[in-house]
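Help needed: design a sequence for this.
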């Protein structure tokens, strides 16, 4: 039987392994040597170093700070659950908040009408917020709600608070959520709001939540940085 050839190890993979070892010896927030310094240390081109650092950035091992690169705090691990991500982040000892981007009043198009089980043209309110953890923007959440079900929400809701808690306080209990998850890249606006470049991989979560009568509560589109977030799910028979 002919044995398979060993896969070729690329230069940037060798550099990544060496930088990984270096990171293990450094504290969180410590500055990494410059690209030029790393290129000289490992005898490779700066482009090879950039490729290795890019992979480490996506893996959440490093982050950009100003014009330099530092050792990153571990990724935020979030459960896929019916709850507030800011509350879950705080439970991990992280500083978390949501910053308002905009309230927008919409009329339901075919997509939102189907998602929210309302007639086309029904008024919808859209809340867009950036999730910030430890001072770093990590997610962009866009929630669409049937306006008739949440009177006065735009005028009275504290946008730094939990929207789920606000909905429950109005006597609307959450019973179930259907999530779809895929990977994507941000557009120019999303990249600017999340302080990343347009090549940063993202998790895209689309959710429809339901009350016990199977009436849709919300449609939520959440975009999370793949370099700063990871998700867990518990499944039982």
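Sure. Designed sequence:
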């Amino acid at each position: 039987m002919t044995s398979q050839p060993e896969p070729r190890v690329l230069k940037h993979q060798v550099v990544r392994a060496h930088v990984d070892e270096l990171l293990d010896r450094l504290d969180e927030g410590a500055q990494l040597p410059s690209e030029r310094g790393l290129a000289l240390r490992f005898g490779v081109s700066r482009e090879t170093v950039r490729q290795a650092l890019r992979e480490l950035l996506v893996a959440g091992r490093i982050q950009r700070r100003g014009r330099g690169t530092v050792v990153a705090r571990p990724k935020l691990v979030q459960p896929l659950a019916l709850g507030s991500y800011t509350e879950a982040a705080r439970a991990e000892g992280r500083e978390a908040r949501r910053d308002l981007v905009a309230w927008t009043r919409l009329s339901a198009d075919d997509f939102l009408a189907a998602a929210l089980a309302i007639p086309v043209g029904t008024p919808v309110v859209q809340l867009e917020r950036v999730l910030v953890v430890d001072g770093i923007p990590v997610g962009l959440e866009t929630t669409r709600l049937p306006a008739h079900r949440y009177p006065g929400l735009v005028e009275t809701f504290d946008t730094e608070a939990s929207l789920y808690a606000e909905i429950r306080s109005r006597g609307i209990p959450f019973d179930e959520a259907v999530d779809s998850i895929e990977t994507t890249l941000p557009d120019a606006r999303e990249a600017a709001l999340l302080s990343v470049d347009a090549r940063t991989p993202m998790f895209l979560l689309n959710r429809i939540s339901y009350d016990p009568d199977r009436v849709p509560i919300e449609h939520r589109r959440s975009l999370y940085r793949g370099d700063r977030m990871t998700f867990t799910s518990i499944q039982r028979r």
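The chain has a mean pLDDT of 88.
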